[in-house]
Write a structure and sequence with these properties.
The protein is built from seven helices and six strands. It is an alpha+beta fold. The strands form two sheets. A four-stranded mixed β-sheet has the order 4-3-5-6. Strands 1-2 form a two-stranded antiparallel ribbon. A hairpin with a 5-residue loop joins strand 5 and strand 6.
């Protein structure tokens, strides 16, 4: 009896971990690229930007380290938008949680050699903690449909706060299946020209 209960528990935990935080898929299996659906406009916010060094290597603010529940996410977005108004960088809002396996994978992908330069040169990144879907939900609803997007959910904002795209289709909810080039392609597609 104990053995079958342990087997059932192990199987259940494995299934939950495999499901991760996804609500739907969102990577084109044939090309390995992330898909994202356009969204309506949303409110404004802000974060710091990166500037290239003399060597051409991107420098600037560090990417967010995880999802900090103590941050004022609305103020962070507002600050990022204010800074972006000056240099026309896009603001990437990353809705997620530290308990989410796919959010942790996306954080590692953001730090990959293919992706980090794109983020630092073309975006201001704001990480918004959703807790266990009990934190910043009203803010998230202004930008993305968490029912269809799962987490992590990404939103790209123009410096005026207009939502250019939101991953309402769950494009990043299975980040564990993604490769850095697919993430970089998504970011380059939505970066300011």
């Amino acid at each position: 009896m104990r053995r079958s209960r342990a087997l059932f528990t192990t199987t259940l935990i494995g299934a939950l971990l495999t499901a991760g935080c996804a609500s739907t898929g969102g990577v084109d299996a044939s090309s390995g690229t992330a898909t994202a659906s356009p969204a309506a406009s949303g409110p404004a916010a802000s974060a710091p930007a990166a500037a290239p060094s003399a060597s051409g290597t991107p420098t600037g603010p560090a990417l967010p380290a995880g999802y900090d529940p103590s941050r004022d996410a609305a103020a962070d977005i507002k600050a990022a938008l204010a800074l972006s108004a000056g240099d026309h960088r896009r603001v990437l809002v990353d809705f997620g949680a530290d308990w989410c396996p796919d959010c942790k994978v996306l954080e590692r992908l953001f730090r990959s050699p293919e992706v980090e330069p794109v983020l630092r040169e073309k975006y201001r990144v704001v990480a918004v903690d959703l807790g266990k879907f009990d934190h910043n939900l009203e803010l998230a609803r202004q930008y993305v449909d968490l029912q269809t997007s799962g987490i992590p959910a990404l939103v790209v904002l123009d410096p005026d706060g207009t939502v250019l795209t939101a991953t309402d289709d769950g494009a990043f909810a299975n980040a564990r299946t993604m490769k850095p080039p697919a993430v970089a392609q998504f970011l380059n597609r939505w970066a300011a020209k």
